[in-house]
Amino acid sequence: MKNYFLILFIGLSTLYKVEAQGHGPIYGLQTPTLAKGGINMNASGMSIATEDEASYMLRYTFFYGITEDLQVTLTTPTVIERLENAPRTRGNSMMPSNGDIEAALWYRFFSNAFGVGKRFESTAILGVSAPTEDVRGQVNVGNSIHGAISTGYASRTWYAWLGGGYQYYFEKDNEQLGDLPYASMVIGYRPDVFMGDYPKPDWRIFVESLAEFPGDNKVNGQFFSTDERSKKVLVGPSILGLTGPWGISFGALFPVYQDLIPNTPREKYRVSLNISYWL
Amino acid sequence: MKRIALIIVVTVFGIISSNAQITKVDQEVFGMDCAPCAYGLERGLKKMDGIEKVQVSLNEGKAYLDLTANNNLSLKQIQEEVKVNGFSAKNAEIVIKGNFVEQDGTYAIQTGKETFKIAEATSTNLRSRLKPGVLTVKGIVQDEEDGELTTKWEIELTEIL
Predict the structure, then answer these.
(1) Do B60 and A242 touch (CB under 8 A)?
(2) Interfacial residues of A (vs B; Cβ cutoff 8 Å)
(3) Is B156 contained in some domain?
(4) Is residue A119 in some structural domain?
(5) Which residue range or ranges hold the HMA domain (chain B) (predicted)?
(6) Residue B101's domain spans which residues?
């Protein structure tokens, strides 16, 4: 319980330092891109807890809309507490919850607005990351590339996104973190009570799920374990509130299935608080 | 004498043209689902020269615009602003003041920048009341593809003001 309060405190404390933005789920891949010339700033407090320890991190993300379908993002962390024995995870589909600095391009390659508040759209993400630590989970950590694709439906009442991604870490000093394929699914709902028209506050709730299949690490030039991948499925709720240019969201994921390769720590939960602002 | 007459004609035409304009737009917007979406569109529209008042409704999917007197805005510019915000501009109900003209058997209202061809769906009663000269009319402008906007539109008149 103390951890939840810490995350809440960290997130709220950033409110006065950074103007931030984000308007979808926290953990799952989504599709919206900014307006042409639009700028968003986003500050997050996040934590991942395993059976033995927990990480705490602030993360700042800058978004810029090059066109209404193409945006660039840059995200950088302030790590407060790292995990000694970190699970192999990206943690959060939209931004790393490990110590990576990441730059990415988002391209919304399909969009069909077919009704009031309704649209189908698909977005591809391609990013490059650099770690802020030398060793992660007792393995040298190098630069990485990340690609993802997401497709979804938005309306005034229902949301749904389905996506998948892949992160590949380059070798560093004869060691290499295992690659990370993952998939996410999000269902969102805005109850009638939150259907007040703009400029009234706009709230919605999500059920988010994330499945990760990290590969083996390579240590001293040798793959560390078996040919099998870990398998992990997490599910949890999140809530997003928006008013004018401001947004705040809070969510948690809990593992419902973990089939891990040996020496991989079991996770207990992930929590995140996100504060957003559109400039 | 001929020169004076020419100057008068040119001056009068110039006055008529400068008064020709859109005065009100209720723009239908598809794909806008959230408060920051509405905020972004509202802010983008407010930045345009010639907009007096903007109101955006998420539930109705509309942007209601009052334009200033003697504005120089076109419907194309307004719909392009909707597009760069990531949404799709559909039908628009507009009030325009413009010159009613006949060209090659078709009837249209011209503002300084755009031509609004009178749609066949316009009632016979309204059509019969159209007279050459400057008119103020209200009507529904039909949706055009967002990526292929021109300065030519089709309007179904609903009222002559």
Answers:
(1) no
(2) 21, 23, 32-38, 67-69, 108, 111, 113-119, 154-156, 195, 197-199, 201-202, 242-245, 247, 278
(3) yes
(4) yes
(5) 23-90
(6) 19-160
Q: So what's the ipTM on this one?
A: 0.81
A40 part of a folded domain: yes
Domains in chain B: how many in total? 1
In CATH, what number is assigned to the domain containing residue B45?
3.30.70.100
Domain membership of residue B12 (yes or no) is no
**Among residues A71, A67, A184, which one has the least CA distance to residue A127?**
A71
Lowest mean pLDDT among A154-163, A169-178, B15-24, B33-42: B15-24
Question: What is the span of the domain harbouring residue A170?
Answer: 2-274
**What token pair was written down for A128?**
């490059």
Segment A59-93, tens digit of pLDDT: 999 999 999 999 999 999 999 999 988 888 887 77
CB B91 within 8 A of CB B131: no
Helical H segments across chain A, by residue range? 2-14
Q: Which of B56, B59, B85 sits opposite A35 (nearest CB)?
A: B85
Mutate one of B34, B41, B57, B62 to test the A interface: name it (highest A CB count within 10 A): B34
pLDDT in tens, A111-143: 999 999 999 999 999 999 999 999 988 889 999
Going by C-beta distance under 8 Å and a sequence separation of 6 or more, which residues neighbour residue A78? A57, A58, A59, A60
How many residues would you count in chain B?
161
